[in-house]
Amino acid sequence: MIELSLQKKLLFDTVEAALELVLDIDHGSITTLYGKSGAGKTSLLKMIAGLMTPEKGNITINGKIWYDSTKGINLPPQKREVGFVFQDYALFPNMTVKENLLFAQDKTGDSKRIRQLIDIIELGDLQHRRPGLLSGGQQQRVALARALVRKPQVLMLDEPLSALDYDMRQKLQQYIIQVHREYDLTTLLISHDISEILKMSDKMLIIDNGKQIAYGDSKEIFTRKNISAKFQFSGEVMSIEKQDFLYIVTILIGRDLVKVAVEGSDLENISVGDQVLVASKAFNPIIRKIR
Amino acid sequence: MNTLSGEIDHVTVSDHLSLVKVKVGSSYLSAVVIDTPNTADYLHVNNQVKVVFKETEVIVGKGDGHRVSVLNQVKGTVGSIEYGELLSKLLLETEVGLITVINNTEAVKSLNLEKGSPITGLIKTSDIMLSV
Amino acid sequence: MIEWSPLILTFKLACITTLILLIIAIPLAHWLAFSRVRLKPLITTLVSMPLVLPPTVLGFYLLIAFNPSGTFGGWLDNYLGIRLAFSFEGLVVASVIYSLPFMVHPIQAGFVNLPNSFKEAAYVLGKSRVTTLFRVLLPNMKSSLLTGIVLAFAHTIGEFGVVLMIGGNIPGKTKVASVAVYDAVEALEYGSANTYSLILFSITFTILLIVYLINGKDITGLTR
Predict the structure, then answer these.
(1) B2-131: CATH topology
(2) By CA distance, what is C121's nearest residue in A?
(3) Based on the domain organization, do A219 and A139 belong to the same domain?
(4) How close is the nearest chain A Cα to the Cα of B132, in Å?
(5) Is residue A107 a part of any domain in this protein?
(6) Is A17 helix (H, G, I), strand (E, B) or coil?
(7) What percent of chain A has pLDDT over 90?
(8) Under an 8 A CB cutoff, do B85 and A226 touch?
(9) What are chain C's domains?
(10) What mean pLDDT do residues B53-76 have?
(11) Residue A288 included in any domain
(12) How far apart are the C-alpha atoms of B83 and A192, rounded to whole Å?
């Protein structure tokens, strides 16, 4: 259980505003932080990790106080049991994969844990390589394994999958869910990908300008504001072409390109590159067996 | 798409399906949805909802009193017509409000419509979505 | 022929100065790179002063400070028994001050260029600041360290004004190679001036060349 209440002045798009959040996060849950860049998502993670100090508030993890401004408690990051996967992975180039993991180990740590992690995240063949020679997905796996060496209570991932291609994402989502269950973690991750959020997280927190916009079941939040349609997907607009009174919009959903014909007024604030929801009545699609 | 505001007048539930009758303007539109008041909390009488359907899902009939198996039949007049090569766009002023329609040019022309002609807009219940 | 003692003295001075500078510059550069204290611009300016100050000005003030009959010099003499004016120790102190920016600036740039997440990652992994410095930060900025060491070393070899002001020209004690060249020219001994100069030239050229070769390799190794 994470209980937190935080206040800090931050710069949002060059405008100073206060981050103010009060949250209770269930033990064992995966929670996604969703919001525009500069909304305060990374700052929130850094405050939980102790890499940034709030002005006021408190952070209690499983009953233990990590931060309390009224009692003058502020544990340094070294004393907080968190695993942090940075956006740039932050693997140390001077160490091999295995040395990166060994570096994370306490003096009392057992080498079994590292062997187990190397197995789960399938790093066996790579363990003697330097991070500079690994692909993005491989680096990501090493960063995930390294974050888990110290048996953290909270695992935090800052846009862990944004730089990876579709197949790699699918695989890493599986790894994250797997270690989350295996090690009984409470996981917080930042993501912009709606399908990723729906697939991975139990709860989601939408923040904007440091304030909570919504917090709750991620499926509910996405479907609540949407439509009674049961046939719906999120995707990225690839192109828009005019055709008589209609526009043919090509949308990438997962690995598939689909085309949707809509009237011009539907496209008023939509342009190529936007994430959109594609919905239809469940009565329209047909199904045919292909395998 | 056409988006009209209304208020739920009646919900008929059968297993996983509901037929939702919504009062829109001075008439009613019905939609069939794969939800029940148990699975979707907006499905209650007197709740405000938006009725959503695409322009291409509206059939236009000339005059009224059509005997077809379409539950939603709204009366009105033609507001404007724009002909394209394959498709034409009509604006209908109806009992439920302004509706945009996109139909085959050939089919529209065969009706010999002009501004002010009395028409009926026909929309199947399975083509209407509800949104909160 | 030439005397070897000025050359030996020069390299002894450069080695000792570089070693002391390395020890001082790492914490100082770390502080300059990450501190947000208001005083920072002042310290940055002081560290950079030797870049623009005429060496004779620095030498002059150091000479005044080191004067055994002055306050500071007297205190050093009475309590620690150290005389810095016209001594090798004095040369070391002056060289350390004079070459300070050449060591500090590359190392400071090295710290700034490292991703901030390296430090944060090490902290979250439970490592102290010192462990982080020695096991993560410094090993990943070897080329900055090498640049600092070489520039400071080469700059110490090349200094003249400060050395002359502080050390004078005492053979075997403070007469370094650059002063020996000046001496030889004054005495119209162009032959030995040429020998000293040629040796200094080849040695500094070789050192710099080796560094650029190593750094060049290192850079390609990283981007591979």
Answers:
(1) OB fold (Dihydrolipoamide Acetyltransferase, E2P) (2.40.50)
(2) A90
(3) yes
(4) 7
(5) yes
(6) strand
(7) 32
(8) no
(9) 5-35+43-51+89-218 (1.10.3720.10)
(10) 91
(11) no
(12) 42
CB contact, 8 Å: A108 with chain C? no
Given B40, B55, B88, which is nearest A228 (Cβ)? B40
What is the tens place of the pLDDT at every residue in B30-43?
999 888 888 788 88
ipTM value: 0.78
Same domain, A207 and A271: no
**Model pLDDT, residue C79:** 82
Same domain, A212 and A235: no
Which chain A positions have a beta carbon within 8 Å of B102's beta carbon? 244-246, 263
Residue A87's domain comprises 2-224
CATH code: domain of residue A256:
2.40.50
- pLDDT score, position C219: 44
Q: Say if residue A173 is in the same domain as residue A202.
A: yes
Whether A38 contacts chain C with CB within 8 A: no
Four-point Cα dihedral A141, A142, A146, A147, nearest 10: -30
Look at residue C96 and tell me whether its pLDDT is greater than 90. Answer: yes
Number of domains composing chain A: 2
Chain C neighbors of A94, CB-CB under 8 A: 136, 139-140
Residue A289, domain member (yes or no): no
pLDDT, residue A223, reads 62
**CA C149, CA C141: separation in Å to the nearest integer?**
13
Q: Kindly state whether residues A213 and A235 are assigned to the same domain.
A: no
Please report where in the chains the tokens 């103010």 appear, as a residue: A20
Residue C2 φ then ψ, to 5°: -90, 160
pLDDT of residue B105: 93
CB atoms within 10 A of CB A205: 23
C210 close to C153: Cβ distance less than 8 angstroms: no
The answer to whether A103 contacts C127, with C-beta atoms less than 8 Å apart, is yes
Q: What is the widest separation between alpha-carbon atoms in chain A? A: 72
Query: A112: Cβ–Cβ under 8 A, 6 or more apart, which residues?
Result: none
Residues of B in contact with A281 (CB under 8 A): 126-129
pLDDT at C218: 52
Alpha-carbon gap: A16 to the closest alpha carbon of chain B (Å): 35
Count Cβ–Cβ pairs < 8 Å, chain A vs chain C.
62
A261 and A186, same structural domain?
no
CB pair distance less than 8 Å for B35 and A228 = yes
